[in-house]
């Protein structure tokens, strides 16, 4: 599991390189108030070779980043592939989450700062859109996010 300092270091590197991204998955759920463990860091990206170059530069501290190619970041939105970086950190670079793309989730992006690190993540509504009905952990997240949403709406 990525420690908080490792996550912040990664996101600081993204900010330094000007990477367009949105933190999704378990870490984003945690930032919205539901604490749960997660094995990986899920990053949603726009389809872009230029942004891919920035991601690769930001990940240069991980040995497996040398295997990445910027062209992999130019994906067909109808059939997006994901890129897994398996190193001291386990990072899933996503181009869609439950059918939602970087662009479709832009209205739900919120920017926060944690320990001086700017983070682009999703609000509760955006996270709910990324959760499936068939994965157990997504159902648990969905239930927790719905409870949080109800509390905030009161």
What is the second-level CATH architecture? Answer: 2-Layer Sandwich
Cα-to-Cα separation, first versus last residue: 34 Å
**Which strand order do you get reading across the main beta sheet?**
1-2-4-3
Identify the CATH class.
Answer: Alpha Beta
Major sheet, described briefly?
Answer: 4 strands, mixed
**H/E series:** HEHEHEEHEEHH
Strand tally = 6
Overview in brief:
39% of the residues lie in helices and 18% in strands.
Would you spell out the secondary-structure blueprint of this structure?
Blueprint: H1 4-17, E1 22-24, H2 25-31, E2 41-44, H3 49-58, E3 83-86, E4 90-94, H4 102-105, E5 109-114, E6 117-122, H5 124-130, H6 136-153
Parallel strand pairs: 2-4
Antiparallel strand pairs: 1-2, 3-4, 5-6
